[in-house]
Amino acid sequence: MDLTPRTSPDNAPLAPRKHNHKWKYVAMLVVVVSAGGFIVSQFLTSAIDFYCNVDEIGKREGCEPNRRLRVQGTVEQDSLKSDSGSTTFVLIFNNQTVDVRYNGDPGGIFQECIPVVAHGQLVGDTFEANRIEVKHSNTYSEANPDRLTQSKAEQCSLLAG
Amino acid sequence: MNHAGFIIATYGITFGVIIGLVVYTIKQGRNLSRTVDDKDKPWT
Amino acid sequence: MSSETQSFKGVGTPTTRMYGLMAVVALGWVFLGGLFFTPEDAVQGDAVRIMYVHVPTAWVAYLAFIVTGIASACWLIGKKHSMGFDRVAGASAEVGVLFMAMTLLSGSLWGRITWGTFWVWDPRLTTTAFLFVTYLGYLAVRGLGGTAEQRARRSSVIALLAVLEIPLVHFSVVLWRSLHQRATVLSPDGDIKMDGLMLFTLLFGVFGFTVLFAWLVSHRQRIMAMQDAQQITALDAAVTERLKEVQE
User: Fold this and answer.
1) Domain ranges for chain C
2) What are phi and psi of C85, to 5 degrees?
């Protein structure tokens, strides 16, 4: 509320209005509403159905094999190979498998037995991925050198959580 | 330490922002205290 | 300026100084323990160290928004419409927005190491980003001008609607398919899958960040009280000046 005196005692010109910070907040609101709209659109198009499981390819709505997919499964033990810049592995979920090829090194904590989400498209029987995201479980345990003596199956169950 | 850059950046930003906010809050509180009557500061 | 006293005292009290001391001790441990003394995780390696700040900042952001909601409800329901509730709501939202920003940032860095990407539009990240911009909007609405009561009324309604997003964010990893892992400490089955020193550091971090939150909100709502008092004093002075003009 501006209650600045309209004239100064000696009838000098009107006092300048104080800079109104309201417009700063109005601009902030506009940005916030736009950002909110963008996030909601991302939610509806992407987040609500983030991935298909391997066993749902071709069986569930939205998981048609002729479209771009995000497929989730576990990197099968002893299936990981790196050859001339590309990485191949088998993704398994509910005993259903799909071969995956990715150009490059997936990075992150990618390894065998870990759950991943592969982005790409089925070409023939192979899922050609151009992005791999690694899921990690909610289990946290101390890295232990003794674990080297554990069986591969035990290590696998730890990675899968 | 693997990925030291990411980890140190996380700690640096988090603790840096916290220290900055705490210092700003203390300074702002002291500056305002000088100009506001004690009757408007029931905690004093 | 009135002729009453303005003592050179900050906004601290013995209670807030105690909060401050507890926060310094706990956060000191989180910093040292999180970076140097806790073990590497079997799967994530050193990346797990980010968890000791990521989880507590997320917890404080949730807590802050819940406090904002409760204080707003108290303002709306209370017969006196005490402005103290509105100031607590505003101070808590400010702190919550800052901690939510830190959560998003630390989560993004953690995600780059473990998932292999800074950001994905998965349910947890998307709902968290939406929660963040909602409370940015809340703060913008608080700054839109008008009387303190108008500010309190419109912002309390928004706070009560916005707080409903928190369960959606927390349970997003259960309701939808998410890249983000499920809760470890607050897991529905009650089984905490975390080794000793890791869990201790995480819980001590949650405690430290919570007392820091209490310290920040106590101080910031007192600062807001002084700003409101300053505004009232300035308004009184302006009215007096205007009355003088009329009389002359």
Assistant:
1) 52-186+195-233
2) -65, -40
Tell me what ipTM this predicted complex has. Answer: 0.93
Q: Determine the residue of chain B that is closest to C6 in CA distance.
A: B37
Least confident of A141-145, C19-23, C174-178: A141-145
The full set of domain ranges for chain A reads 1-49, 51-160
| Residue among C52, C106, C117, C217 with most chain B CBs within 10 A, to mutate | C106
Helix C51-77 × helix C148-162 angle, to 10°: 120
- C59 to C71, C76, C205: CA distances (angstroms): 18, 26, 10
User: Measuring CA to CA, which residue among B42, A63, A135, B10 is closest to residue C82?
Assistant: B42
pLDDT tens, residue by residue, A82-130 = 888 899 999 999 999 999 999 988 877 888 989 999 999 999 999 999 9
For the entire predicted model, the pTM comes to 0.87
Instruction: Name the CATH architecture for the domain at A51-160.
Output: Beta Barrel (2.40)
Please give, rounded to a whole number of angstroms, the shortest distance from the CA of B34 to a CA of chain C. 5
